[in-house]
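Researcher: Please predict.
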Amino acid sequence: MTDDIVEHRRLIIAGTGISGLSAAIYAARSNNDPLLIEGDEPGGQLTLTTDVENYPGFPEGISGPQLINDMKAQAKKFGAESRNGVIEDVSKAPAGHFRVELSDGDAYTADAVIAASGASARTLGVPGEEELMGYGLSTCATCDGAFFRDEDMLVVGGGDAAMEEANFLTKFADTVYVAHRREEFRAEDVWIERTMEKVDDGEIELLLNTELTEIHGTPEDGIEHVTLVEHPDGHPTEKLDDPATADEVDEYEFDVGAVFYAIGHTPNTDFLEGTGIETDDDGYLITEGGRGGNQTATGVEGLFGAGDVVDFHYQQAATASGMGVKAALDADEYLSERERAGELYEGEVDAAAADD
């Protein structure tokens, strides 16, 4: 832990996805001097989306990276600043302010913090995944399903998210295939029942005891086909790695035009553990909620949460943006109250650290 403080800020925003940038625009316009810390996924999930057609105001659509870049420019126009870096730890000081430490050793103090660090979609790490993410491979059916109208589509997963996405994709797909590594689904009964109705109608086909091992295609032409493995007892990749059972695994090529991962998200909240913040069992931040003001406040005074780090249900660009706006407004009210009470921190900045 360094004792050198680079700078004191009125407000620090963790994350530069759409929620963090929306918060920055509003915070800057309220003269709250926001500093955005990029994080290890600058721009968030939208940077993996080639085209965004469901964000209001763009009738012809807009690319995810372009939307993020435009919002960064808008935030900068109003005075927001950003820097590269990954926040390693946030702690609350006895005086009421926050200490924010980065992985490179830099440290800041802040009167308030907005956590807009998002949730990272879980992936499989199979060959072709990195090259084709955003080019036929997606982690959001609602965002990207319409781009693959009349194609056969593959959904990977067996929980509520997989069932929900498979049902949604039947609006566009020729056939939706659901690959799940076991015989039984983990989804709630209501989602299984809805899915089985679609199976009976021929809109969904189940590939049980099956796993995806490779995605074939190019960014130019999209996905051509995938490689799947199947074993009657489930978990085929484990059995494929075991010489005693490898011969029992059926490996085959399967033609689909799009693949959707629905194997969950991991909220990026580890850096907040030092604050004593409350999360649910899956690590998502718990905020005040409700209908009045202060909906984005956490149980830690001065710490606000917005976007997918809070929202495990909707996970849409437009809803994340709205939550970022709420967080900026809640933070502004908090900071204004502390300023009126003469309780804002006047930190001492180490001159050498600030010049580095």
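Model: The radius of gyration is 23 Å.
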